[in-house]
Amino acid sequence: MDFSDFKITIVGLGLIGGSLAMAIRDLKPQKLWAIDRDLNTIKAAEEKGIIDKNDEDCKSMLLNSDLVIIALYPEDTAKFMLNNMESFKTGCLITDTCGLKYDMLLKIKDFLRNDIEFIGGHPMSGKESSGFTSADKAIFYNANYIITPTEQNKEETIIQLEELIVALGCKRPIKMSPKDHDKIIAYTSHLPHLTAVALINCFNNAENLDGLIGGSFRDATRVADINSKLWLELIRLNKENVIDILECFINNLSELKTAISNNDQEKLLDDFKKASSRRKEIG
Amino acid sequence: MDFSDFKITIVGLGLIGGSLAMAIRDLKPQKLWAIDRDLNTIKAAEEKGIIDKNDEDCKSMLLNSDLVIIALYPEDTAKFMLNNMESFKTGCLITDTCGLKYDMLLKIKDFLRNDIEFIGGHPMSGKESSGFTSADKAIFYNANYIITPTEQNKEETIIQLEELIVALGCKRPIKMSPKDHDKIIAYTSHLPHLTAVALINCFNNAENLDGLIGGSFRDATRVADINSKLWLELIRLNKENVIDILECFINNLSELKTAISNNDQEKLLDDFKKASSRRKEIG
């Protein structure tokens, strides 16, 4: 697809927004602008030629943009749309990059104009570091990307977004409902993060673990150095799903504990075999 | 240290035993023999020049060995010592590679001869694959290695084992009591494995997770494809420690669940911050 007619604005030049800017730059859009509260970041991105220089205000950028990608935290994303709803160009597409999709729809449904479209997006890529200085277009290479179109979206707009995502280097995006997305993400992302936190917090400071940690512990706790602000928000906004999956997990662990306590080798073997075969399926 | 006077026998040419044989071969011992119930493995190792050919029986190998490294599962290791106690050379050192150290001492204390020494060892290295065909001396490079000497061991024997371990490419071994080892390993290894099992077993087959899995899930479940036979044994032999740490972990998770349910942001932030700083300490 040819993006040379597109004027694109990215809102938020953090790790994801900055990486998106770098990847989109390669697609040679007519204009690529960015909005960030940190003007030094904007200046740095302009100087590196990642975004086009634009001396006008936020409003005029949005008025001229065919595509706006908002790469902020969930609540800031909704607020940005609310505060700028009058500025978006008729017919434009807005997408976001938040890790939650249903709450956003609830928040924006009352103020989203009828002459513009919103499609939620969730790039399944990241890094342990954050911010524009960590931005790297390679994070999209072969990455999974979920989009959550609704009945309000035109087929051609969905296709446009899909083609952009593929052009970034990602796999063909997976389409699902916002509700399904949030339920699955509670399992595949929120649970492993909470697990890492709970696991490392069993650490008794009296013990010196230096040199006593193997790969399994390191892997299981890799994401324990959590971005508190973002995660408080994600977990609050996905509360019901997170509680459901935590209950399932705690239940599985309690069953294992009981089986170990009772020397119930059959139950343990059963769980181990189930786990082995499921892990192999994931690859 | 010079190993050219040493005759060494490795019992069990699996991943660890095979890798040890490869690494020890480089140290040019006078003789390097191996015992394995699979004669094809012995033949393959001989043909590759990893071990010396030896047409005599197990007994004569042990009678001539200054160092015997037993790389079998925990209960097989104790059985091997019991069944061959009369064959070991006077003054020899026996070490093992099991992931548990205290139970072994209990098992062998009644039959270990006074004229030989045993020092427990635990190389903190491995691979997801197993068996001689996966053996690779590189698994020891810069690896942690724990040894659990007791009051029965002579200082010079302990130093000898330490020097061998460093010569394999490992870091200088960490010395600790068998009981401390097993308690810590319940946390740093057994718990992450059980966590991986319980986490992946929350998977509802009705959901298609293809393309919806990020790094955190993949990391947290990496060891879920568990070697059932070995792990049933490890967990049974370390039952009390495993139950204690599982209780702590389940308790932490339950507290997180309650905090999420009550929107207790303060408790969550507290846990997140504690986890972040502890994870950074590990590096």
Describe the structure.
Chain A is α/β, with parallel strands linked by helices and 283 residues long. Chain A has helices at residues 15-25, 39-47, 58-63, 74-84, 102-108, 155-167, 178-200, 215-220, 228-237, 239-261, 265-282, and strands at 7-11, 31-35, 67-70, 93-96, 117-123, 145-148, 174-175. In chain A, strands 2-1-3-4-5-6-7 form a 7-stranded mixed sheet. In chain A, helix 6 links the parallel strand 6 and strand 7 (174-175). In chain A, helix 7 crosses helix 10. The first copy, chain A, is elongated and about 70 Å long. The relative contact order of chain A is 0.10. Chains A and B meet through helix 7, helix 8, helix 9, helix 10 and helix 11 of A and helix 7, helix 8, helix 9, helix 10 and helix 11 of B.
* DSSP, total strands of chain A: 7
Largest sheet of chain A: 7 strands, mixed
* Spatial gap, N to C terminus of chain A: 32 Å
Main interface: chain pair and counts = A-B, 78 and 78 residues
Mean pLDDT of chain A: 94
Strand line-up of the largest beta sheet of chain A: 2-1-3-4-5-6-7
Oligomer: homodimer
User: How helical, in percent, are the residues of chain A?
Assistant: 40-55%
Note the total helix count of chain A. 11
> What shape does the CA trace of chain A take?
elongated
Strand content of chain A: 5-15%
Decide which structural class fits the backbone of chain A. alpha/beta
Contiguous runs where pLDDT drops below 50 for at least 5 residues of chain A: none
